[in-house]
Design goal:
By secondary structure, the protein is an alpha/beta fold. It has two domains: 174 residues, Sandwich (Immunoglobulin-like), CATH 2.60.40.1500; 364 residues, Glycosidases (TIM Barrel, Alpha-Beta Barrel). Helices cover 27% and strands 26% of the residues. It is built from twelve helices and 25 strands. The strands form five sheets. It has a ten-stranded mixed beta sheet with strand order 1-24-21-2-18-19-20-25-22-23, with helices on one face. Strands 14-13-10-9-8-7-4-3-15 form a nine-stranded parallel beta sheet, with helices on one face. A two-stranded antiparallel ribbon has the order 5-6. Helix 7 crosses helix 10 and helix 8 runs parallel beside helix 9. The radius of gyration is 24 Å and the shape is globular. 50% of the residues are buried. The N terminus is likely disordered. Pfam families: Glyco_hydro_39. This is Glycosyl hydrolases family 39 N-terminal catalytic domain-containing protein. Belongs to the glycosyl hydrolase 39 family.
Length: 558
């Protein structure tokens, strides 16, 4: 175990010894394994990205395998550009499958080659598509030229919204394309498999992604025709939306339309809605030269979305998916144009992810909504410099520290159990004011199943500052065994951190094969302690030193 990690002790609860009295007072967290607070729904096992053709690139396939391996349940994957026209090449915020074109007489030509190659990679790994119906094929675009964008970080987002971002010029052909795609999917993968997917229409129609004089009602029409086509092809398929950028009037009006208004495609009242989806982002900024995260903004957007769903009694219990849930917006904006995005390489992003995902359970419970997924919008970017500051899970095939948070979450299953503390933040406090000032957020998420208790504990602050942190004492009650196998995993500056290892090498722009092997080893989730220990009266205490921005996972197996 590294020297800066204080000895981790698991023993019966007892007073601290005299030598410990001179140490800083520990942060105390109490875990009661007999007090279930709700299911440990794997809301974290959802990932997404703009560029679908990264899926079949070598580093993309490796990362998919890494993601699939960390989860005990199927991982859901959401990607843009699944219907976009093109040759299947990738670029920042771009991709294509060319599934639809027309012959010289205007008759549809369907080509499933590229989309099959993408979905095959998911299905081979036991993953489930959150299949996005979008964007508009060139032959159906209302303004087809210019069609492909060549956006690079720096120009404003309107540079993106070329011919792929329009509604269809022919709703009959649009509907038939969707019908044929779902029908083909059933033929290729089987009815049972496709029934386990989720289908959605478009992305952020309220955020510029739908270029139309009246994007709201045009989107309602697109959704109605798409939902009708999906259900005709597979009546048991699941479709939902609206995947709005926020939870404002657009989302509210969409839900009312689906529940109570006339369907554009059928003329009847109501439109199928099997889940509700919206997006929520934070808002980092630089203060006195230091990155300050905006978890408060992130939580307010989450709460606003949950509140909109909760206002409709007809939606009680409907699955809710946060289609993009991230610290900020542009995954494809690197340090080259946004130097502050260096935080994404290291432990600030990791600790933010741990602290925010844990509180999403509380935010959803407070509004009484059925949260089933929160999509982490990050994957990987091909042909880019090492640790370039993109919001991604890996760089050049090497996993970044944030991915190890998901490896930790993958070891947590069963039911969530109660955690209380003497200096903890709660979701409402963070939503109101973030994690600012002198005190950091040291808290935990705990879960148990028949043979395990797992506790993920973090030391988070909005400001990107690292220090020695604080001693932490976990008091665990309700352990149904006299002896347990303890394992302790850690993400910090010395463990589970390929970025820190790369910097120690001198930040090579072209690492040697030996250096890449070293980085691969550093990218794995590090176990720092393992022991068989006794408990007393079903209770035990774990002590550790937890640096700022560190995340630990303690598991007890019996």
């Amino acid at each position: 175990m590294k020297r800066h990690l204080a000895a981790l002790v698991l023993a019966a609860v007892a007073p601290l010894c005299v030598a410990e009295a001179t140490m800083p007072s520990p942060v105390k967290l109490a875990i009661d394994a007999t007090h279930v607070t709700g299911p440990m729904t794997p809301i974290w096992a959802w990932f997404g990205y703009d560029e679908p053709n990264y899926t079949t690139a070598p580093n993309g396939k490796k990362l998919l395998s890494d993601i699939a391996a960390l989860s005990p349940v199927p991982v859901h994957v959401r990607t843009h550009n699944l219907m976009t026209s093109g040759d299947g090449s990738y670029a920042l915020k771009w991709g294509s499958t060319n599934m639809y074109s027309e012959d010289k007489d205007g008759k549809p030509v369907y080509d499933w080659t590229i989309i099959d190659g993408i979905f095959d990679k998911y299905i081979e790994r036991g993953m489930k598509p959150l299949a996005q119906i979008g964007f508009m094929p060139e032959a159906l675009s209302q303004r087809p030229q210019p069609y492909r964008h060549h956006w690079k970080p720096g120009p404003p987002y309107p540079e993106l919204f070329t011919g792929w971002a329009t509604p269809p010029k022919d709703y009959g052909k649009w509907s038939e394309l969707i019908y044929q795609w779902v029908k083909h999917s059933v033929a290729r993968y089987g009815r049972k498999e496709v029934e386990s997917w989720y289908w959605e229409v478009w992305n952020e129609p309220d955020g510029g992604y739908l270029s139309a004089p009246d994007p709201k009602h045009e989107y309602f029409k697109m959704y109605d025709y798409a939902a009708d086509a999906v259900k005709r092809a597979l009546p048991t398929a699941r479709i939902g939306g609206p995947h709005t950028a926020g939870a404002g009037r657009f989302m509210d009006d969409f839900l009312r339309h689906c529940l109570r208004e006339t369907n554009y495609a059928t003329g009847k009242t109501g439109t199928p809605l099997d889940f509700v989806a919206f997006h929520a982002k934070g808002a980092p900024k630089v203060v006195d030269g230091v990155v300050r995260m905006g978890m408060d903004t992130h939580f307010r957007h989450l709460d606003e979305g949950f509140a909109v769903v909760a206002k409709y009694p007809e939606l009680n219990g409907i699955p809710v998916i946060v289609g993009e849930s991230d610290p900020e917006g542009c995954a494809a904006c690197s340090m080259q144009t946004n130097p502050e995005n260096a935080y994404r390489n290291g432990t600030l992003y990791a600790s933010y992810t741990a602290a925010s995902i844990a509180r999403e359970y509380d935010l959803a419970t407070r509004r009484g909504v059925n949260l089933i997924g929160a999509v982490n919008w990050s994957f990987e970017f091909e042909d880019q410099p090492w640790f370039a500051g993109f919001r991604d899970l890996a760089t050049n095939g090497v996993d970044k520290p944030v991915l190890n948070v998901f490896r930790m979450l993958g070891k947590m299953r069963g039911d969530r159990v109660a955690v209380t503390g003497d200096r903890t933040y709660d979701a409402a406090r963070i939503q109101a004011a973030g994690v600012r000032g002198a005190r950091t957020d040291i808290d935990a998420l705990a879960a148990k199943d028949a043979h395990h208790i797992a506790i993920m504990v973090w030391n988070y602050h909005d400001d990107d500052v690292i220090d020695a942190g604080s001693p932490v004492e976990l008091h665990i009650a309700g352990i149904p065994a006299k002896r347990v196998q303890l394992r302790h995993y850690r993400i910090d500056q010395e463990h589970s951190n390929s970025y820190a290892a790369w910097k120690r090498m001198g930040s090579p722009s072209h690492p040697t094969a030996a250096q890449v092997a070293e980085l691969q080893k550093a990218s794995e989730l590090a176990q720092v302690e393992a022991a068989t220990v006794a408990t007393q009266d079903g209770a035990a205490t774990v002590r550790m030193q937890l640096p700022r921005q560190a995340v630990s996972l303690v598991t007890l197996t019996y």
